Amino acid sequence: MSGRIELPEVPELELAPEKPPQGPVVWMQENLFSSRGSTILTLGGLIIAWVMVKGFAGFIFDWTSRRWDMITLNMRLLMTQAYPAGDNPQIIDEAGVPIDQFHRIWISLAIVVVLAIFSIVFWRVGGRLSRRKLARVVIGIGVFILFTFLGVPIIDYALPFLLLAGGVGVLYIGFNAVRTAIGTSRLIPDLAMAVLVNLPIGVLLIAAGGAGVDFGGWEWQFSVKVHFWTILAGAILVGVGWVVQRDEGAKEETIPTMGIIGVLMVAIAGLLWIIQVPVPSELVVGAPKAWDGLATSTKVPWTIILLGAIPFYYLAVAVRRVVPEKTGRRVMAGLWMLSFPFLSMVVLRDPGFGEEFAPGFDLVQYLIIAVAFLVVGGAIIAVSAMPNIGEWSAAISGVIGLAIIYTWGFTSMLFFVRFLLVVLMLFVLGAKTFGSGPARNRYLMVYGVTMVLLTYFFIIAKGGSTVKVPGASPFGGFLLTLVVFLGVTILSFPLGVLLALGRTSTMPIFRLMSVAYIEVVRAVPLITWLIMSIIFLPFALPLDAELDRILGVILFYAGFSAAYLAENVRGGLQAIRAGQKEASKALGMTTIQTMIFIVMPQALRTVIPALVGGAIATFKDTSLVTIISLFDFLHISRFVIPNSTLGRASVRTTLLFAAVFYWIFTFAMSRASLRLEKKLGVGER
Amino acid sequence: MTNEKTLSDNDMIVCEGVKKWFGDFQALKGVTTTIKEREVVVVIGPSGSGKSTFIRTINRLEVHQEGRIVVDGTELTSDLRNIEKIRSEVGMVFQQFNLFPHLTVLQNITLAPMWVRKKPREEAENSAMALLERVGIPEQAAKFPGQLSGGQQQRVAIARSLAMEPRIMLFDEPTSALDPEMIKEVLDVMKELALSGMTMIVVTHEMGFAKEVADRVLFFDYGDIVEEGTPEHFFTNPSHDRTKLFLSQIL
After folding, report:
1. What does the alpha-carbon distance between residue A417 and residue A423 come to, in Å, rounded to a whole number?
2. pTM listed for this prediction
C-alpha cells in the first residue's frame, strides 16, 4: 500500500450574511434602551457618573485652591529626589564645584527609548488600525472631554455652553457639507441626527443656567479662555471623528499604528512649546495669575527625545533589512537585560572607576578570582557536559552547593566568590542538557560572558562614586519606585520558578527546602521583611559583605515576592497533564529538557494573568519602602511636598496626581498582559 | 495472512517474570515473553488486565519491581543512562496523543531529534517533513496541534516518535480516543509501518488490525499472559475459556 493517505475535497462554504449598517439611534435603542430595566440602568449610570465626574472636575479645575503648580514645580523631586541641577551646594565634585546631574536621567531615558524603538521594530509590534476604529477612539476622547467639562459649574460661563449647544451641530453639518461637495452624501439624516443630539443638551443647559441651578460645590474661578477652547476641541474631535468613520471605506482602509504614534509624538513635542498653564504668582487667593509654558525646564530634552525617536525608528527599520530578525531579537533581549544593571550602576550611579574604591577592596584579587572561575569553572562545566558522565554532573553541582552552604557565615569568604559559586553551581547543573559539540561550546561561552559581566558589575559596585548625596539613598522619587519594581520583578522571577520546581520536585531535600522557604516567607508581613532588610541583613550576610540600603530592600522584597510567584507558578505546573511529561520522556528527553521545553512554557503561559497581577501588586507595594526611610514617589507626594512651606494644603493635589500616575503604569501593564495572552493563546485552541 | 516479511532471530525485547504493584494491587504477575526483531505483537484483553502497564514498563514509564526486562541488549535498571538510551530507541504513541500544544506540528517533531540526537535544525526539519509526507499531512506542518482533528493529531504523534528513528514502536490504545471515521486513517499508517519491518507492540481493541497485521497476539488478564499465538490460532481456535469468553463478548 502507498504511504500517503488521500484527503477528501473540502466543500465550498457559504459566507455568513453581512450585518446591515445601523445608525446610532438604532444602536442606542438596541444596547442602551432595549427594555425598561436597561433604560433605568443607563440613565442611572449616566447620572452617577456625571455627578462623580462633576465633583472631580470641579476639584481638578479649581486652579486657585488646587496647587497643581506644586507638581510642576516639584517634578524633579517627584521623579528622582536627588538629581538636582547645579544650584544645590550639597552636590559637589572633588574640587568642591556643584555639578548638574540631570544629564544622567536624560541619558538613561534616551537609552531606554532607543532600545524600545529597536525592539518595536524587530518584534514588529504595531500593525494597522482601520480608519473607523481610529475615528471612534477620537470620538471617545471628544465625548470624554465634553462630558467632563459639562460636569463643571457653568453659571458664570453660560456663553461657552450656548456656543457648545450649537457648536457640535454646526461643525457636524459643516463637515458634512464638505463631504457633500466632494461626493457621497447623507446630509438630511445627519442633520436630523445633529439636531436631535445637540438640541436637548443646549436647552437643558440654558434652562438650568436661567433657573439659577448651582452645579458646583467648588468655588469656580477657572479661566473662561481655557474652558472655552477645551470644549471647542472636544466638539471638534467628536465632529471630525463622526464624519471620518461614516463612509463605506472607513472599515477597510487602514493606517499604520506606528504612523499614528509618530504623529502623536510630534504633536506632544509641539504642544510642549505652545500650551501655557496658569501659575499662581502669589499664594493669595484671587491674585492675578501668571502664565507659563508647560514643562518649562524639561522642554528641550523631551523635544529631543520625542523627535529623535522618529529617525531612530527608520534607522531600526534599515537595520532590520540587513540583520536577520532572529539575531536582532536575541541581541535586543541581551541589551535589555544588560541595560538595567548598566543604567543603575553606571549611568545613574556614576562610579569613578579606579578611584575611591570601598575600603579593603583589592582589584587584583578580584581579577585573579574571576580568571580562576573562568578556567576552573569552565573545565568543570565541560566535564559535566560530557555524555558519559551521566548523573555525576548533578553530584558535582551538589558538592558546590554544599560548599556554599557550609561556609556561609562561618568563614570570611568574599561575597563575590560565594556569588560566583552559586552561578557556577547552576551552570554545572544544567550542563548535561548540552552534551558535546557546538551546543556545549555555546553554553561555555554563555558561562564566560556571565562571569565577566558579573565581575565587572561587582567591581563597579565596589567602586566609589563622584557624587556625594545626602541621605540614606543615592536617589528617590519615581526613579526609586521604578528601580525597586524592576529589580524585584527581575530577581524574583527565576527564584520563584526555582522554588515552584522545588516544591513540585520528587527530590526530598530540594522539596523540603522550597516548602520551608515559601511557608516562612509568606507567613511574615512584607513590612517586617523590609525592616529586617536593614536591621538583620548584616547578620545573614557573610562577614565582609556590605550592601547598599536600596539593594538590601530589593533583595528582601524579591525573596518575598518570589514565594508568592512560586505558588502561582505551581498552579501552572499542576495544570499540566501527566501525559505531557510522559511523552517528552518517551522521546528520550532528560528531566531538565522536559522542564525547559515542555513543562515551563505551558505552565507559565497559563499563569500570565496571575504573574502580571503579582507584578502590579509589587509595583504598588513599592510604596512601603517609605517604612525604612526611603523617599519613594508616594512618600514625596504625601509628605515631602505638602510639608514644604510653599506647598501647604496641596496634599490632595499631589495625592491625586500620584494616584493617576500609578494608574497609568498599572493600566499599561494589564493591557500588555492581555496582548501577551492573546498572542500566546494561539497554540491552545 | 500474506505477511511476507521475515523475522530475524534477534531477540528485541526479553521479559522474564516481570512483576509490578500499585500500592497493594498487583498489576503484573510475572509476565514472561520474548519479542523478536521485526515482529508485530498485538496485546488485547479486558480493561484493568495490565496490558497498558506492561508496555509502559518497556520504556520505564512504569517501574517494574521484580523480574528482568532487556531491550535490545540493554537491561532496564534504575541507571538513568540506560533508561535514556532505551527511551531514545523506543518510540511510544499514546491514547491521548500527548502532542505539545504550545509547539507547531513541525516543532513537535523536530524537538527531540535536535536536543536528544543533537541533529542540526535543517536536517531535523527535512526528515520531519519527509515523515509528515509519509503519514499524509505535510500541509499541516505550521499549524498547532489544537487546530488538527484527532486522527491528524495521532498521525503527528506517530511521526514524532518515528523522528527519533526508533527500533521499536509501542502503541498504547492509539485509536481509542478517536471518532470511528478517523480510526482508519491511523490504522493505515500503522499497517504501513508494520509492513516496513518495524518491531511493534500494539495494545488495541481493533481486532481487524490484529487479524490483518499481527504476527502474534497476546491475551492479557489479571496481570498475566493468559494465551498467546498467531492470529489464526487465536481468533479461530482459542484454547482458554477466558479467551473464548472475551472474544465472544467483543466479536
Report:
1. 10
2. 0.72
